[in-house]
Amino acid sequence: MKEIIDALIKFRNERDWEQFHNPKDLAVALNVEAGELLELFLWKEAEEADKEKVKEELADVFSFAFLLAEKYGLDVKEIVLDKIEKNGLKYTVEKSKGTAKKYTEL
Amino acid sequence: MKEIIDALIKFRNERDWEQFHNPKDLAVALNVEAGELLELFLWKEAEEADKEKVKEELADVFSFAFLLAEKYGLDVKEIVLDKIEKNGLKYTVEKSKGTAKKYTEL
Amino acid sequence: MKEIIDALIKFRNERDWEQFHNPKDLAVALNVEAGELLELFLWKEAEEADKEKVKEELADVFSFAFLLAEKYGLDVKEIVLDKIEKNGLKYTVEKSKGTAKKYTEL
Amino acid sequence: MKEIIDALIKFRNERDWEQFHNPKDLAVALNVEAGELLELFLWKEAEEADKEKVKEELADVFSFAFLLAEKYGLDVKEIVLDKIEKNGLKYTVEKSKGTAKKYTEL
After folding, report:
1. In this entry, which stretches build a coiled coil (chains A, B, C, D) (predicted)?
2. Where are chain D's structural domains?
3. Numbered residues of chain B with Cβ closer than 8 Å to any chain D Cβ
């Protein structure tokens, strides 16, 4: 992942874009890209989305997610594994197996 | 990243949640989480968001992004580096240095 | 508002699009359009967005919001006034005056 | 609609919230609420969402959409009818009848 983040930072710095990349706008950009990804599924069954386009929009989502992580000095592996552990307490196997209910309704 | 994806898949399979994880709902989930992340910046200056909460919401965003990548058999490093290359053609250093304009307006 | 909804329904029916307009896809469409509206503010100060484009994207947001309301047989005036009343209990003037804090933190 | 907007403005002014309601944060708020509405459909068939909750989240979406319209001095009926007319040119009945394709692919 270090390699990805380094490439993103290099791209950003070559264009002198750090001045625009405050965390709020990065979160806005992430939402914009998540919306573009979602559009690929609009009015469609799950299988019908164009895989080539999914690849590109998902890459954009990851880019802003990595830039946000970098901005806060967060280690992606650590925060995801921590969250999985935390979610394991909210969604115990016993209560949540086979159901998509939110933990507030379990 | 393999380790992260393996942990996410294990969590999902223990709960028998693969049945819900079609790509369209994963894209919906990603948008929901991106919205929760964005809420942390609402009515605030960029610096005022709660870092602990950002950590958790960003972890959720990454989780669904990784699950989508896995669903399509995509290699995250490859798709991000490919996209950076592609973006380099739309946003050449010459035209885009120091400006946040969209490529359609450069 | 009846006039707006009638025009939207006429447009939809002339194109035989009711078959695609289930509530879930309408909610997806609303998010996609909200993302396009948000993009107009990306990397910018609040005043810098292009008003002509805001007008168009906001119109799209309203269109899908009205179509969703119609789908559920909801009266827009009634649901907004009800929600204002409800919010008045969560955000009493006393506690929330001059602060942007969420009610859970007041 | 004047009545709705007046009620929203009154609610806002009583709490001295106009200071937070710049167009960018209103667009952010609209996205956050659109995400909460979307969550009601997550992992579900279109018919399974809770109508009472849809009502509330849709009311929130409308509230921020109306506040944005008001901020820009836009007439909601006018902008939606204008957009319908514009969309009629992109999506002619002839080309778009019975298909959910985007105009760029028609």
Report:
1. none
2. 1-73, 75-106
3. 20, 25, 28-29, 31-32, 34-36, 38-39, 41-43
pTM above 0.90, yes or no: yes
Over residues B21-57, the pLDDT tens digits come to 999 999 999 999 999 999 999 999 999 999 999 999 9
Chain C hits for D46, Cβ within 8 Å: 22-25
User: Is-contact A56 B83, C-beta < 8 A?
Assistant: yes
Task: Write out the two tokens for C26.
Answer: 């309408």
Give just the sign of the alpha carbon dihedral A99, A102, A104, A105. negative
- Residues contacting residue D49 through CB under 8 Å, at least 6 positions apart: C23, C24, D40, D41
B72 contacts: CB under 8 Å, gap ≥ 6: A51, A54, A55, A58, B23
Task: Render pLDDT for A15-67 as a digit per residue (tens, 0 to 9).
Answer: 999 999 999 999 999 999 999 999 999 999 999 999 999 999 999 999 999 99
CATH number of A1-73: 1.10.287.1080
